[in-house]
TrEMBL record:
It comes from Mastacembelus armatus (zig-zag eel). It is found in: Chromosome, Telomere; Nucleus. Residues 547-557 have a biased composition (Acidic residues). InterPro entries: Calcineurin-like_PHP, Metallo-depent_PP-like, Mre11, Mre11_capping_dom, Mre11_DNA-bd, Mre11_N. Its cofactor is Mn(2+). This is Double-strand break repair protein MRE11.
């Protein structure tokens, strides 16, 4: 299995050097007077870094462009920089061994660009598409296809089927090192999740010497959980992989971390520009220089010098009782003074860190999130921003007021889940939108009732409702879980409110991701089906049990052979 070695890689004829970056978002805020050049400066730095380090190739993990239809300026700048840094007389030291007609099957030039006799490529660029620059239209084209047709990049990982996916690797060899590069461009998370669950995603492997290949996979999906099926668990990926380059997530976690279940490593390079003022974007931005020799690898973190600094802090006004309370005279003025001091502190920190870094933009991004719960009032953010208009890059949105949702007791609200979801389905929303609306509605009920349900169960019930019009799926799941929990509590003799809450939570957590949970969901869905049949409505496809088949996470050598 793979070794993550911090000191092995001596550059030689057997060592791949791969520059890795994701989520460049070229063209983001390009019309902004202050931040308009940020993404262009950083892409220039990334490409220059690849040339300086004599990378064998550049690997991009999606969202090279911020817009699906980039502006003329954006395309012109991108083409100019790729031509400047990636074309030339420097020799390429690795060979492609796989069938390139399969690897690059969406272009009229199905071969890697450096092997084109009409082009002079010194650093090949391989890229999957992201959710921002994904293929659209009847032809299924994206901005990367324009660059591919012009011979500047190699667009791979484009799946044209919505039913199943077969990922064939680009097989490369440099000296004695063999590298299998897998890629999958962005697909709606819930659709891809369902494909994995139904065993519709196949990763092909070389017929010969399978254990001698370093298997590198590039993916552009949600890694963190945004809902029951609105992400891709790492456990879904095949365990023969050695390293996964995870795009789409913007927080920089580029140091490879080991998945102890699948035994591969995951690197999350993050974005090279902050596209939202959130804590994850505040981490220092890096790209990586990956060195691979045999089954050993080393990831060198390279900090980006042209990225605009971003600092974020949270202030909870209720924590400053020694300075003021909601009843303090002129409390709003005192709150504004506190916020001014906090912003000034962040600006001073930015100035200290910028010393000796002439490439770093002068004006940083500053965000102060102010929790004014407990009776405090807000002040004018526009007036406050005028104090820093010449010192920050985002003067209009420095302050963000927020308030914790207060718990309301003894208020019962009835939510018609069927009506809510049926209306949403008619409006054509995706299932992840339905899940979100469900949980927003459920918050009005009480956390106690919501705690009976598992996310997997709720996701399955909604899927049955939307895909198969199983009208009773959601209500039956709630009723079934309620009955079973009541019996469990009676059997345990739990009577106090505190003990009930703790026991319900323990019961729910103990069933997560188990066979028992699958059986309970299946029983609830069968109940819903029985009610439908009693009504004489047999228009829905029978047989839901197949979708509950266990997901096989083991690598079956026989079924992953190249054709």
């Amino acid at each position: 299995k793979i070794h993550c070695d911090c000191c092995f890689c001596r550059d030689d004829e057997d060592t791949f050097k791969i520059l890795i970056a994701t989520d460049i978002h070229l063209g983001y805020l390009e019309k902004d007077a202050i931040r308009g050049n940020d993404t262009y400066d950083t892409l220039n730095e990334i490409l220059e870094c690849a040339k300086t380090n004599q990378a064998d190739f550049i690997l991009l993990g999606g969202d090279l462009f911020h817009e699906n239809k980039p502006s003329r300026r954006c395309l012109h700048s991108c083409i100019t920089m790729l031509r400047k840094y990636c074309m030339g007389d420097s020799p390429i030291h690795f060979n492609i061994l796989s069938d390139q007609r399969v690897n690059f099957n969406t272009t009229q030039f199905p071969w890697v660009n450096y092997q084109d006799e009409n082009l002079n490529i010194s650093i090949p660029v391989f890229s999957v598409h992201g959710n921002h620059d994904d293929p659209t239209g009847a032809e299924g084209l994206c901005a990367l296809d324009l660059l591919s047709a012009s011979g500047l990049i190699n667009h791979f990982g484009h799946s044209q089927s919505v039913e199943s996916i077969e990922i064939s690797p680009i097989l490369m060899q440099k000296g004695n090192t063999k590298l299998a590069l897998y890629g999958l461009g962005s697909i709606p998370d819930e659709r891809l999740y369902r494909m994995f669950v139904n065993n519709k995603v196949t990763m092909l492997r070389p017929k010969e010497d399978q254990d001698k290949w370093f298997n590198l996979f590039t993916i552009h999906q949600n890694r963190s959980k945004h809902g029951p099926t609105n992400y891709i668990p790492e456990q879904f990926l095949d365990d023969f992989l050695d390293l996964v380059v995870w795009g789409h997530e913007h927080e920089c976690l580029i140091t490879p971390t080991r998945n102890e279940q699948q035994l591969f490593y995951v690197t999350q390079p993050g974005s090279s520009v902050a596209t939202s003022l959130s804590p994850g974007e505040a981490a220092k931005k890096h790209i990586g220089l990956l060195k691979v020799k045999g089954h050993k690898m080393n990831m060198q973190k390279i900090p980006l010098k042209t990225v605009r600094q971003f600092f974020i802090q949270d202030v909870v006004l209720a924590d400053y009782e020694d300075l003021f309370t909601p009843d303090t005279p002129q409390v709003t003025k005192k709150v504004e003074d506190l916020c001014y001091a906090k912003v000034t502190e962040m600006l001073e920190q930015a100035e200290r860190e910028r010393l000796g870094c002439p490439l770093t933009p002068e004006k940083p991004l500053i965000r102060l999130r102010v929790d004014y719960s407990g009776g405090f009032e807000t002040f004018s953010t526009s007036r406050f921003s005028q104090k820093f208009v010449d010192r920050v890059a985002n003067p209009k949105d420095i302050i963000h007021f927020l308030r914790r949702r207060e718990q309301k007791e003894d208020i019962k609200v009835t939510v018609d889940y069927g009506k809510l979801l049926k209306t949403s389905a008619v409006e054509g929303l995706r299932v992840e939108d339905l899940v979100k609306q469900y949980f927003e509605a459920a918050e009005q009920v009480t956390q106690r009732q919501l705690s009976l349900l598992t996310e997997q169960g709720m996701g399955k019930a909604i899927q049955e409702f939307v895909d198969k019009d199983e009208k009773d799926a959601i209500q039956e799941l709630i009723t079934y879980q309620l009955e079973k929990t009541q019996r469990h509590l009676q059997a345990r003799g739990v009577t106090t409110e505190q003990d009930i809450d703790a026991e319900v939570k323990r019961l729910r957590d103990s069933k997560k991701n188990t066979t028992e949970e699958d059986n309970e969901i299946r029983e609830a869905m069968n109940r819903a089906k029985a009610h439908r049949l009693e009504r004489g409505d047999d228009s829905v496809d029978a047989g839901i049990s197949d979708e509950f088949a266990d997901v096989n996470m083991d690598s079956d050598e026989g079924s992953y052979l190249s054709q």
